[in-house]
Write a structure and sequence with these properties.
This protein is mainly α. Helix content is 75%, strand content 0%. It folds into two domains: 1-109, no CATH class; 114-208.
Length: 208
C-alpha cells in the first residue's frame, strides 16, 4: 500500500468515527499530518511532484479541520505540517510557514522545527542557509537535535569540508551531548573517504 493511500485511509477512518459520534483528538490529527509528511519522501515515483502537491492540499485541509474543531494547535501539529513542505523541498512555502504561521498561533519554532529546515537545506544543497540556522538556534538558546547535527555533518563532509564537519561533531557532543550512533559512524567514515578523493581532485584542479 502506498503511503499516500494510507494517509487517505487514516483520514477517512476518523471521518467514520465522527459519524459514530467519536470526535478525533489532537493526536489523531497530528498522526494524519505526520503521515502526509512521511509520504512526501517517497522516491522513484514518476508522479511524485503531482502527489506531493496533492499531499500539501490535503494536509492543509486536515489542519483547517483541526482548527475548526477547536482543538489546540501546538508545536506537534505545526511541525507535522511543516514537514509536509520541507520533505517535498518546497523551500519558499516552508520558509513562509516557519516565519509566519507559528507566530500567528502564538507559538515559537522549536528544535524539531529547525531540524526540519536544516535537513531541507542540506538536501537542496543550500549549505550556508543550513549553517545559519545553527547560529540562529545558538542565539535563541535552542539545542539542535541529533538529526540536525547529523545532516549538517554529513552534508559538509560530502562537500569536502571535513574540518568544518568535525567542528559540528564537537558541538554535537559538547552542546547536545550526542555521539554518532554506530551505524552513523560507519556512514561518516565512508563519506570522509569519499571527501578525501574530492579534496585531492580540487587540489589537482588548482595546480593546473
Amino acid at each position: 500500500m502506498c503511503r499516500r493511500r494510507r494517509c487517505f485511509q487514516n483520514e477517512k477512518s476518523f471521518e467514520k468515527d465522527e459519524d459514530c459520534g467519536i470526535k478525533p483528538t489532537e493526536h489523531t490529527y497530528v498522526s494524519v499530518l505526520s503521515c502526509y509528511s512521511v509520504a512526501q519522501q517517497v522516491k522513484g515515483n514518476s508522479n511524485l511532484t503531482k502527489e506531493q502537491n496533492q499531499n500539501i492540499v490535503d494536509a492543509l485541509a486536515v489542519f483547517e479541520k483541526m482548527k475548526e474543531s477547536n482543538l489546540p494547535v501546538n508545536n506537534y501539529s505545526m511541525n507535522a505540517l511543516l514537514g509536509v513542505f520541507t520533505n517535498a523541498l518546497r523551500i519558499t512555502r516552508a520558509e513562509e510557514f516557519f516565519a509566519r504561521t507559528y507566530q500567528e498561533h502564538q507559538l515559537v519554532p522549536d528544535s524539531i522545527s529547525y531540524a526540519l529546515l536544516v535537513r531541507m537545506y542540506c538536501r537542496a544543497k543550500r549549505t550556508e542557509k543550513a549553517m545559519a540556522l545553527f547560529d540562529e538556534m545558538k542565539e535563541k538558546g535552542i539545542i539542535p537535535t541529533y538529526q540536525a547535527y547529523k545532516h549538517m555533518v554529513f552534508k559538509l563532509v560530502d562537500e569536502g569540508y571535513v574540518e568544518k564537519a568535525r567542528d559540528y561533531l564537537r558541538q554535537m557532543f559538547e552542546v547536545g551531548g550526542f555521539k554518532l550512533s554506530p551505524s552513523d559512524i560507519i556512514k561518516y567514515k565512508s563519506r570522509v573517504a569519499g571527501a578525501a578523493r574530492l579534496i585531492k581532485e580540487r587540489k589537482q584542479e588548482e595546480n593546473v
